[in-house]
Amino acid sequence: MLLKPKAKEVRRSTKSNPDSTGGPAKAATGGDIGEKSYDTYLDESFSGDAEEIEGTEILSEQSDLVESAMEPQTVDSWEKLPSGGEYLDPDDSGTIWYLDTGGVHWFQNADESWTQYFNE
């Protein structure tokens, strides 16, 4: 018959813990437990949320800029068109077109202003 081995006796040290100061227990943050109120804890723990909200506002402003950049721009005359492009032959309806070096097409309006064309 097999016998279960006896549990070894665990000896506990009577020496004090060298990390122990004899004072109140320390929290993981290094502060005394009970030193901070729950509200203070929440304020410290969630203070980064304000930065995230501010960052979201910045992203919102940037996306507004991108959206406005995607809106067609109009210039007063041919002199304000981006340089280096080329004029294209008028289309079937007589509209005069300009192709800038960035690949953006511009069309001439009745008042001789020019507007970017985006095919959406």
How are the elements arranged and paired?
Elements: H1 38-45, H2 48-69, E1 74-75, E2 86-88, E3 97-99, E4 105-108, E5 114-117
Antiparallel strand pairs: 1-5, 2-3, 3-4, 4-5
Order of helices and strands: HHEEEEE
Radius of gyration: 37 Å
The residue fraction in helices comes out at 25-40%
The low-confidence runs, each spanning 5 or more residues with pLDDT under 50, are: none
Sheet with most strands: strand arrangement: 1-5-4-3-2
Mean pLDDT: 73
Count of DSSP H/I helices = 2
Residues in β-strands, percent: 5-15%
The rough form would be described as: elongated
Overall structural domain count? 2
How many strand segments?
A: 5
Q: How would you classify the helix and strand content by structural class?
A: alpha+beta
Q: Largest beta sheet, briefly? A: 5 strands, antiparallel
N-to-C terminal Cα separation, in Å?
87 Å
Q: If you had to describe this structure to a student in words, what would you say it looks like?
A:
By secondary structure, this protein is of the alpha+beta class. The chain folds into two domains: 28-71; 72-120, no CATH class. It is 25% helix and 13% strand. The protein contains two helices and five strands. β3 and β4 (105-108) form a beta hairpin.
